[in-house]
Amino acid sequence: MSAETANDIRFTDLALSEPLLRALADVGYESPSPIQAATIPPLLAGRDVLGQAQTGTGKTAAFALPILNQLEPAARKPQALVLAPTRELAIQVAEAFHKYARHLPGFHVLPVYGGQGYGPQLSALKRGVHVVVGTPGRVIDHLERGSLDLSELRCLVLDEADEMLRMGFIDDVEAVLKKTPETRQVALFSATMPQQIRRIAQTYLKDPVEIAIKSSTTTAKNIRQRYWMVSGVNKLDALTRILEAEPFDGMLVFARTKLGTQELADKLAARGLSAAAIHGDVEQKQREKLVQSLKDGRVDILVATDVAARGLDVERVSHVLNYDIPYDTESYVHRIGRTGRAGRSGEAILFVAPRERGMLGAIERATRQKIEPMELPSVETVNERRVAKFLERIGSGLESGQIGLFRDLIERYEREHNVPAVEIAAALAGLLQGDTPLLLEPPRERPRPAPERGERAERGERHPARGDARPAERPQKPRAPRDQGPRAPETGMETFRIEVGHRHGVQPGNIVGAIANEADLESRYIGRIDIRDDHSLVDLPEGMPRELMEHLKRVRVAGQQLSLRRAEAGDTDGPPRGKRPFAGPPRGKPAGRPKPGKR
């Protein structure tokens, strides 16, 4: 199915239940993306699906909506299982299920992943859940404990299968597949189709419908793309600063929902900006008037949803600002394509929350273009612009030729009250400005800069699984040459031995992926890795809690249990056979990822 055909389809054409359509309407979705339009019908018909699509094409809704459409609300055992390569993706998928099921009473989805205590997961499974979303290692742990019963499973989804292969989880994926009922439906999604993924599809999928979505994700070279990492500064305040300091002609601001567009337009108007909202509930005649107002310069900012802005072509639009990051890369391309038309230059700005870094990376990969970070205009810059505009208004007033009467009145007031004309002008200017201050107040303390990509916004955040146990700060220390005898760990690190090595075909990336996932530890806090014949050595932060050590013993890599333990003298002797380059100590302490919200 082509993208053009998909654009003519609406969710109401896809045989989805009324509660799901209501949930989609709540979040402002009207038309499915190409992967959704191609995938939802065969899944609703009970067919297996093999889908090739990049991250960010909207595939979560492509499998979540059919699963929710066919749930038995009264059943207590899991009816659907989604395997995801990382805890972040598992949380995002679980949140998407929760969002689409908002009008399905009693629905329960449970994300399960390493680094989180077993207690809440066991309690939820015992109470009963409809959908489980998890990383392969933790799902297998629950299967071995007997706490996850897949006997009534109807659908299994393998999300980002090639990423699970890259991280060394493919054996775990097959182990899960073998423990599911023969009658279950399978949907496998992968950005690429390496031989091992194709083999799994041929082995475990029954006559699948094959879907390949080639995203039309090219962006014009004449559009400068920048992002602002929204951290510590309110989005609305950041937008206001940009609007006041960034020279623009006309601007489209994209929000995710109809309600969001209206609220944002009202808030911008209250701040003295010429803004209006355009969304699916605005009648066509009013829509045309708003677009014409943007063309004529009577409105400078249109706040829009994706659907409302489709086909909108206004030469005056010099900037597109993504107030809410789009859920798929094609939406991003369509949005920023509203500027830079007919060879003119354009500006595209994207607001990214810390938890949305993954989507930013997906957009960059899909468009094959780097999006550069931008600096938020300073208070001084905004104030300079405000003063300049104020002086422009005075100049316009002097040129109007209608000041004769007012000059006479000021001269009269000056004579009668013995007040200099400049004081009277200042008082009148204050009346004109009203309660809104002309100038922004400088910050009382210097705000922290937005975190660089790959860094956490809050370094001191308490780790969800380890309480207060954190490794010490690691000062810069020169590395010892490789030929200085026994291997010594970096400062603040300990060396551990794991029982997987060259003979098992392990790669450094497999070890990093497994430990990062299961220990809830960012990969940059995993130090040197030496791969030997039958075992490997890895440097991890000091102070690893005992429970976490016990858990990592059972984690599998390349089909082997890690059986992790602290390295002894004999383990570290001799030259390493393979090593993961150590990029230097991180600036600050590792922080745990946020827990998912309660459902």
Automatic annotation (TrEMBL):
The answer to keyword Hydrolase applying to this record is yes
Which reactions is this enzyme annotated as catalysing? ATP + H2O = ADP + phosphate + H(+)
Q: Which domain of life is it from?
A: Bacteria
Name the InterPro entries on file: CsdA_RRM (IPR034415), DbpA/CsdA_RNA-bd_dom (IPR005580), DEAD/DEAH_box_helicase_dom (IPR011545), DEAD/DEAH_RhlB (IPR044742), DEAD_box_RNA_helicases (IPR050547), DeaD_dimer (IPR057325), DEAD_helicase_DeaD (IPR028618), Helicase_ATP-bd (IPR014001)
SUPFAM superfamilies from the entry? P-loop containing nucleoside triphosphate hydrolases
Chain span(s) of sequence motif Q motif: 9-37
- Report whether Ribosomal protein shows up as a keyword of the record: no
* E.C. number(s) listed in UniProt: 3.6.4.13
- Kindly provide the name given to this protein in its UniProt entry: ATP-dependent RNA helicase DeaD
Tell me the name of the encoding gene.
deaD
